[in-house]
Each structure stands twice: as structure tokens, then as C-alpha cells.
């Protein structure tokens, strides 16, 4: 094998390994890997806005993945987003008055649902509804609030 051919083969292998590494990282950071928790139970939560939340998004409690978003539909009566969560059966001690909040991983990352435990002696079970929810914060809304609050401070400061 001449040196030119082995150089080309090495370069090709390097590029192939680079693409494989990128594909692996993409599946790990975008939650495309299936979360196989085995048997699960379904609970629902209603949000006024789900932002960019998607099916199969993680459901976490204390930073630990305990389930996935099973479906997102529009409730025809309340016109809120109805989110069905599939929570692994092994996490069956979650208080019924727990709080569900849509969070974002990092500044521009994927969204997930974070559950904060309540104090109820009763636990969530199949068919339960999480009543305490907080919708997704939209980056555009935050920027708008920042700009308008900054503008009003400078306007009130100049009139003094």
C-alpha cells in the first residue's frame, strides 16, 4: 500500500469517527434516546402554554429522569394544553399535590417537565391530575419584560 493511499484511508476513518461522535452527542443532548422505564402509569397536567415542549420530553424530579411526556393535546373546553405524562411505576411515592413546571435545559436547550413534591399523604396514581402547574417561560416574553422594565426605569429617572 503506498503512503498516499494509507493517508486517504486514515483521513476517511477520522472523518467517519467524527460523524459517529456527532451523531452520538446529538442523540444524547436532544433526548432522542428512548427512555425505557418499563411499566408506567399516566398522569395529566394542564398548562396555558407548553412552548416548545415535545412528545417524549423528559419528566424529572430532583434532576432525576422519572418518565416522559406521552402526549400533548388541546383541551377543547378550557383551551389549555393537556399534557399526559408516563411515569415509571418504580416512582410511585410522588405526593398527589406535587407541582409541575415546564423548564428549559440551559439557555436554549430542550424543554422538560420538572416535578416538585408536595406534602400530601396521598400519592399520584394512574389517571391522576396534577392541578398545580406553571407554563413555559418564553424567551421572547423575558426579553420583552427586560426591555420594557429597563425603558420605564430610564424614563422615570430622566423626569426627576
UniProtKB/TrEMBL annotation:
Domain of life: Bacteria
A Pfam entry, by short name: MlaD
Record domain Mce/MlaD: where: 40-118
InterPro entries: ABC_MlaD, Mce/MlaD, MlaD_Phospholipid_Transporter
GO molecular function list: phospholipid binding; phospholipid transporter activity
Stored PANTHER family: INTERMEMBRANE PHOSPHOLIPID TRANSPORT SYSTEM BINDING PROTEIN MLAD (PTHR33371:SF4), INTERMEMBRANE PHOSPHOLIPID TRANSPORT SYSTEM BINDING PROTEIN MLAD-RELATED (PTHR33371)
NCBIfam families per the UniProt record, alphabetical: OM_asym_MlaD (TIGR04430)
Protein's name in the database: Outer membrane lipid asymmetry maintenance protein MlaD
Organism: Metallibacterium scheffleri
UniProt lineage: Bacteria, Pseudomonadati, Pseudomonadota, Gammaproteobacteria, Lysobacterales
